[in-house]
Design brief:
Blueprint (H helix, E strand, L loop, with lengths): L4 H13 L3 H15 L3 H5 L2 E3 L11 H9 L3 E7 L5 E5 L6 E3 L5 E3 L14 E5 L2 E2 L5 E2 L5 H5 L13 E6 L19 E4 L3 E3 L8
Length: about 200
Protein backbone atom coordinates (compact mmCIF):
# COMPACT_ATOMS: atom_id res chain seq x y z
CA UNK A 1 0.00 0.00 0.00
CA UNK A 2 1.30 3.48 -0.85
CA UNK A 3 2.51 5.71 1.97
CA UNK A 4 0.11 8.46 0.93
CA UNK A 5 -2.13 9.12 3.99
CA UNK A 6 -5.09 10.14 1.81
CA UNK A 7 -4.97 6.81 -0.07
CA UNK A 8 -4.59 4.82 3.16
CA UNK A 9 -7.53 6.59 4.81
CA UNK A 10 -9.76 6.06 1.79
CA UNK A 11 -8.93 2.36 1.54
CA UNK A 12 -9.42 1.70 5.25
CA UNK A 13 -12.66 3.64 5.48
CA UNK A 14 -14.02 1.73 2.49
CA UNK A 15 -13.05 -1.57 4.11
CA UNK A 16 -14.68 -0.57 7.41
CA UNK A 17 -17.86 0.44 5.61
CA UNK A 18 -18.19 -3.06 4.13
CA UNK A 19 -18.33 -4.75 7.53
CA UNK A 20 -21.64 -6.36 8.49
CA UNK A 21 -23.30 -5.68 11.87
CA UNK A 22 -22.34 -9.20 12.96
CA UNK A 23 -18.70 -8.55 12.07
CA UNK A 24 -18.72 -5.31 14.07
CA UNK A 25 -20.20 -7.05 17.12
CA UNK A 26 -17.60 -9.81 16.88
CA UNK A 27 -14.82 -7.23 16.59
CA UNK A 28 -16.12 -5.33 19.64
CA UNK A 29 -15.96 -8.57 21.64
CA UNK A 30 -12.50 -9.38 20.29
CA UNK A 31 -11.06 -6.01 21.27
CA UNK A 32 -12.26 -6.55 24.85
CA UNK A 33 -10.30 -9.80 24.98
CA UNK A 34 -7.22 -7.92 23.77
CA UNK A 35 -7.70 -5.05 26.22
CA UNK A 36 -8.12 -7.38 29.19
CA UNK A 37 -4.55 -8.59 28.65
CA UNK A 38 -3.53 -5.08 29.70
CA UNK A 39 -3.44 -4.68 33.52
CA UNK A 40 -4.15 -0.95 33.30
CA UNK A 41 -7.47 -1.59 31.55
CA UNK A 42 -8.56 -3.66 34.54
CA UNK A 43 -7.64 -1.18 37.28
CA UNK A 44 -7.12 2.39 36.01
CA UNK A 45 -9.70 4.75 37.45
CA UNK A 46 -10.22 7.15 34.56
CA UNK A 47 -10.40 5.61 31.08
CA UNK A 48 -11.09 7.82 28.06
CA UNK A 49 -12.44 6.46 24.82
CA UNK A 50 -14.51 7.69 21.90
CA UNK A 51 -17.95 7.51 20.34
CA UNK A 52 -17.52 5.33 17.25
CA UNK A 53 -18.44 7.02 13.98
CA UNK A 54 -17.66 6.33 10.34
CA UNK A 55 -17.15 2.60 10.84
CA UNK A 56 -14.72 2.92 13.78
CA UNK A 57 -14.48 -0.15 15.98
CA UNK A 58 -17.28 0.19 18.58
CA UNK A 59 -16.38 0.25 22.27
CA UNK A 60 -19.75 -0.62 23.85
CA UNK A 61 -18.53 -4.05 25.02
CA UNK A 62 -15.40 -2.52 26.56
CA UNK A 63 -17.43 0.22 28.28
CA UNK A 64 -19.74 -2.41 29.80
CA UNK A 65 -16.72 -4.12 31.40
CA UNK A 66 -15.41 -0.80 32.75
CA UNK A 67 -18.81 0.12 34.18
CA UNK A 68 -19.13 -3.30 35.83
CA UNK A 69 -15.81 -2.71 37.63
CA UNK A 70 -16.75 0.82 38.70
CA UNK A 71 -14.17 2.54 36.50
CA UNK A 72 -14.94 5.96 35.07
CA UNK A 73 -15.42 6.14 31.30
CA UNK A 74 -14.89 9.52 29.65
CA UNK A 75 -15.66 10.87 26.20
CA UNK A 76 -13.64 13.54 24.37
CA UNK A 77 -14.89 17.08 23.92
CA UNK A 78 -13.32 19.28 21.24
CA UNK A 79 -12.12 22.61 22.62
CA UNK A 80 -11.80 25.95 20.85
CA UNK A 81 -8.02 25.48 20.82
CA UNK A 82 -8.35 22.27 18.77
CA UNK A 83 -7.37 20.24 21.81
CA UNK A 84 -9.42 17.61 23.60
CA UNK A 85 -10.88 17.70 27.07
CA UNK A 86 -12.67 14.70 28.57
CA UNK A 87 -16.01 14.37 30.35
CA UNK A 88 -17.12 11.38 32.45
CA UNK A 89 -20.06 9.66 30.76
CA UNK A 90 -22.80 9.39 33.38
CA UNK A 91 -25.94 7.28 33.19
CA UNK A 92 -28.69 9.29 31.50
CA UNK A 93 -26.28 11.94 30.23
CA UNK A 94 -27.52 14.13 27.40
CA UNK A 95 -25.42 14.00 24.25
CA UNK A 96 -25.14 16.74 21.65
CA UNK A 97 -23.34 16.50 18.29
CA UNK A 98 -20.26 18.68 17.96
CA UNK A 99 -19.33 20.53 14.76
CA UNK A 100 -18.20 17.23 13.22
CA UNK A 101 -21.44 15.46 14.11
CA UNK A 102 -19.80 13.38 16.86
CA UNK A 103 -21.86 13.11 20.08
CA UNK A 104 -20.39 14.82 23.14
CA UNK A 105 -21.82 14.80 26.69
CA UNK A 106 -23.41 18.02 27.90
CA UNK A 107 -21.36 19.14 30.89
CA UNK A 108 -20.53 21.88 33.34
CA UNK A 109 -17.06 23.40 33.24
CA UNK A 110 -16.17 21.67 36.50
CA UNK A 111 -16.73 18.27 34.85
CA UNK A 112 -14.12 18.81 32.16
CA UNK A 113 -10.91 16.82 32.65
CA UNK A 114 -7.59 17.62 31.00
CA UNK A 115 -5.56 15.02 29.08
CA UNK A 116 -3.19 14.87 32.07
CA UNK A 117 -6.11 13.83 34.33
CA UNK A 118 -6.72 10.62 32.37
CA UNK A 119 -5.04 7.31 33.24
CA UNK A 120 -5.67 5.35 30.03
CA UNK A 121 -6.82 6.55 26.60
CA UNK A 122 -8.44 4.32 23.99
CA UNK A 123 -7.52 6.10 20.77
CA UNK A 124 -9.43 5.65 17.49
CA UNK A 125 -7.36 5.15 14.36
CA UNK A 126 -7.66 4.68 10.63
CA UNK A 127 -4.40 2.75 10.19
CA UNK A 128 -1.43 1.74 12.34
CA UNK A 129 1.94 0.04 12.25
CA UNK A 130 3.67 -2.04 14.92
CA UNK A 131 5.97 0.80 15.93
CA UNK A 132 2.98 2.60 17.44
CA UNK A 133 2.52 5.07 14.62
CA UNK A 134 -1.12 5.92 13.98
CA UNK A 135 -3.03 7.50 11.15
CA UNK A 136 -6.15 9.31 12.34
CA UNK A 137 -8.62 11.41 10.41
CA UNK A 138 -6.14 14.21 9.80
CA UNK A 139 -7.27 16.79 12.35
CA UNK A 140 -4.34 16.20 14.70
CA UNK A 141 -6.48 16.46 17.85
CA UNK A 142 -4.89 13.55 19.69
CA UNK A 143 -1.32 14.50 18.77
CA UNK A 144 -1.97 18.08 19.85
CA UNK A 145 -3.71 17.09 23.09
CA UNK A 146 -1.07 14.61 24.20
CA UNK A 147 2.01 16.40 22.91
CA UNK A 148 3.37 16.59 26.48
CA UNK A 149 4.06 12.84 26.21
CA UNK A 150 6.65 13.32 23.46
CA UNK A 151 9.21 14.49 26.04
CA UNK A 152 8.29 11.79 28.59
CA UNK A 153 9.93 8.40 29.06
CA UNK A 154 7.32 6.00 27.76
CA UNK A 155 5.15 4.40 28.90
CA UNK A 156 3.83 7.31 30.96
CA UNK A 157 0.48 8.61 32.18
CA UNK A 158 -1.80 8.49 30.39
CA UNK A 159 -1.16 5.22 28.60
CA UNK A 160 -2.19 5.51 24.94
CA UNK A 161 -3.82 2.43 23.43
CA UNK A 162 -4.91 2.49 19.79
CA UNK A 163 -8.14 0.67 18.94
CA UNK A 164 -8.68 -0.77 15.48
CA UNK A 165 -9.50 -3.74 13.34
CA UNK A 166 -6.62 -6.08 12.56
CA UNK A 167 -6.98 -5.30 8.85
CA UNK A 168 -6.05 -1.66 9.55
CA UNK A 169 -2.42 -2.66 10.09
CA UNK A 170 0.09 -1.48 7.47
CA UNK A 171 3.77 -2.36 7.20
CA UNK A 172 4.95 1.14 8.07
CA UNK A 173 3.60 4.66 8.35
CA UNK A 174 5.71 7.76 7.73
CA UNK A 175 6.81 9.46 10.97
CA UNK A 176 5.99 13.14 11.46
CA UNK A 177 7.63 15.49 13.97
CA UNK A 178 4.32 16.12 15.74
CA UNK A 179 3.30 12.46 16.09
CA UNK A 180 2.68 11.07 19.57
CA UNK A 181 3.31 7.32 19.48
CA UNK A 182 0.91 4.75 20.88
CA UNK A 183 2.05 2.51 23.75
CA UNK A 184 -0.15 -0.41 22.73
CA UNK A 185 -2.62 -1.28 20.00
CA UNK A 186 -5.64 -3.45 20.76
CA UNK A 187 -7.30 -5.06 17.75
CA UNK A 188 -10.03 -7.64 17.46
CA UNK A 189 -7.25 -10.24 17.11
CA UNK A 190 -4.40 -9.27 19.47
CA UNK A 191 -2.75 -6.81 21.82
CA UNK A 192 0.39 -5.29 20.27
CA UNK A 193 3.09 -3.87 22.57
CA UNK A 194 4.65 -0.80 20.94
CA UNK A 195 6.67 0.36 23.95
CA UNK A 196 10.47 0.56 23.63
CA UNK A 197 12.08 -2.82 24.41
CA UNK A 198 14.20 -1.31 27.21
CA UNK A 199 11.05 -0.19 29.07
CA UNK A 200 9.47 -3.63 29.16
CA UNK A 201 9.67 -5.85 32.26
Amino acid sequence: MADDPVSIRAKMREQRARLTPAERIAAASGVVSSLEQLPEFLVDRRVAGYWAVGGELPLHAAVARLNARGQQYCLPVVGADRRLGFVPLKRGAQLQPNRYGIPEPEHAGADLLSPQDIDLVLVPLTAFDRCGRRLGMGGGYYDRSFDFLRAAARPAQPLLVGIGYAFQEVATLPAQDWDVALDFIATDKELIDCTPPESRP
